[in-house]
Design a protein that fits this description.
elongated; Heat Shock Protein 90; alpha+beta; two-stranded antiparallel ribbon; 2 domains; 7 strands
Length: about 325
């Protein structure tokens, strides 16, 4: 990928230098031809006014209409050359800008797809291998009740991980197909509790607290969509924070506006990436060295669902460290 990017930049630079030099050469030639035409025309005019036996009266020559027309013609052609040069340069710069932006976008898209394929392969392979190992153990060995329960719990955890992955993929596909939320009264507190319970099955060491009033009125939202928002924000906080770091999910409703706040004490997000994290397949860091699991779809799904509800999501730094996501809709 890096080699392709370097080759593209080298080719773009070569084309730019060649076109600029070629245009400069032609511009100089046109300028010289214009001056040469003026000199030849001036000499012919001098010959006509001077005659064969008397000298040239330069004052009279410069005052003639023919000479003034030659001067105006030369100035006009000079302005044309300059104007065309400026216009060509602007068009060339704009064209190269568009081409370079499109090329960078294609490279970024290719890199995102590569990251997605690497991550999705890992996300599918790991739980499938764990489930297969669990089934093989159950099939080949006689286990005590305690061992059986532990293996079944592990298998259920991996199955839940696969289910979450498949649901995210399906939801991401539906979001690209003009998905529209189906609004209904929803108990946000109950949904948040279910999401937290599901995450604790996969991440037993997660330290999640809910700050949701018991008398919170029902919110008008799409239930699967809002569930995906809370689930992905909490899961993102768990994945990108040290084990056992405090994570708080707070919900309040004022004047019909639902406000969801998820704060963690994790590693934080650089300012330069606070916008990019909502892009499809985007993940912080390098996929080859990243330790956390994921597909880069979670925050993309969150933003699309929030926008479909007519809301907005913001990300800021937490104090003393970490990240805060705020959803209003």
């Amino acid at each position: 990928m890096q080699q392709s990017k370097s080759s593209l930049q080298l080719l773009t630079s070569f084309v730019l230098v060649y076109m600029v030099l070629a245009f400069a050469w032609w511009a100089v030639q046109l300028w010289r031809e214009n001056d040469r035409f003026f000199e030849v025309s001036s000499q012919l005019l001098e010959t006509r006014y001077g005659g064969p036996k008397r000298g040239v009266n330069l004052t009279e020559l410069l005052a003639t209409a023919e000479y003034q027309a030659l001067v105006q013609r030369r100035q006009k052609h000079r302005r044309m050359i300059l104007a065309e040069g400026i216009f060509f340069t602007l068009c060339l710069g704009f064209g190269l800008y568009v081409i370079n932006r499109s090329a960078k976008r294609e490279l970024a898209l290719a890199r995102q797809h590569r990251n997605f394929m690497l991550s999705i392969t890992h996300e599918l392979k790991s739980p499938l291998a764990a489930i297969r190992l669990t089934l093989e153990t159950l099939h080949k060995r006689e286990l005590q009740r305690e061992q059986l329960e532990k293996l079944c719990a592990n298998g259920l955890r991996d199955a839940a991980r696969l289910q979450t992955l498949v649901e995210d993929l399906l939801l991401a596909a539906r979001l690209e197909d003009n998905w529209r939320p189906v609004l209904e009264p929803i108990d946000v507190r109950s949904i948040a509790q279910d999401c937290m319970a599901n995450l604790l099955v996969r991440f037993p060491a997660a330290n999640i607290t809910l700050a949701i009033p018991a008398d919170l009125p029902p919110a008008q939202a799409d239930k699967p969509g809002l569930t995906a928002v809370i689930q992905n924000l909490l899961e993102n906080a768990v994945k990108y924070a040290p084990e056992g770091a405090a994570i708080q999910c707070a919900v309040e409703q004022t004047n019909g506006i639902l406000r969801l706040r998820v704060a963690d004490q994790g590693f934080g997000i650089p300012d330069a990436e606070k916008t990019a994290i909502f892009e499809k397949f985007y993940r912080i860091g390098n996929e080859d060295t990243r330790r956390t699991t994921g597909t880069g779809l979670g925050l993309y799904i969150v933003k699309q669902i929030v926008q479909a509800h007519g809301g907005m999501i913001t990300v800021t730094d937490n104090k003393p460290k970490g990240t805060v996501f705020v959803v209003e809709m």
